[in-house]
Amino acid sequence: MPTTIRICVGSKNPVKIAAATQAFKTIFPDHMVQSVAVHAPSDVADQPMTEAETRLGAQNRVRYCAQQDTRNEIDYFVAMEGGVDEFEEGAATFAYVAILSKEGKLITGRSANLPLPNKVFKRLQANEELGVVMDELFNTSNIKQKGGAIGLLTNHAATRESTYTQALLLALAPVLHPEYYL
After folding, report:
1. Is 89 part of any known ligand binding site?
2. What is the pLDDT of residues 41-71, one digit of tens each?
3. Which of 50, 81, 77, 80 is nearest to 64 (CA)?
4. Whole-structure pTM over 0.85, yes or no?
5. Which residues have CB under 8 Å from 161's CB, separation 6+?
6. Subunit arrangement (predicted)?
């Protein structure tokens, strides 16, 4: 019988739950993966506007999840935070991922950048959320729980879920090869 890995995802968003579950199933193909989801506050703005704020949001969410595990039943806590920043190449959206083991080892990773149209970035600077802006521009509903801005701007060649999954897969390298990450 395969060993079970229990993960707690710091979001009720089905995209984030699916990405975390898929990443762990890919990394641990000989294990059963059980996922539970909790609403974990980021303690940052609803639309983080810097890399630092986005990173902090993911780390805050993952630490919150760990604090909720009073029975010590979870093997890994996982959180994702989407954000925006302005780079030399222009404005972009991206995500930070945080993974915390039950032993207390924190791993933080980051996704690739998706360039944002200037008119979208200007609206974000005016305190609007990316999902709301994209829903309005593309006449969609609740896109952040579907393909996200990534799906819309890449004609679904990439999605919010695929981007989160990739970032988590890369962040899990130290779990697979701890002897190299001392």
Report:
1. no
2. 999 999 999 999 999 999 999 999 999 999 9
3. 77
4. yes
5. 15, 18, 19, 22, 147, 148
6. Homodimer.
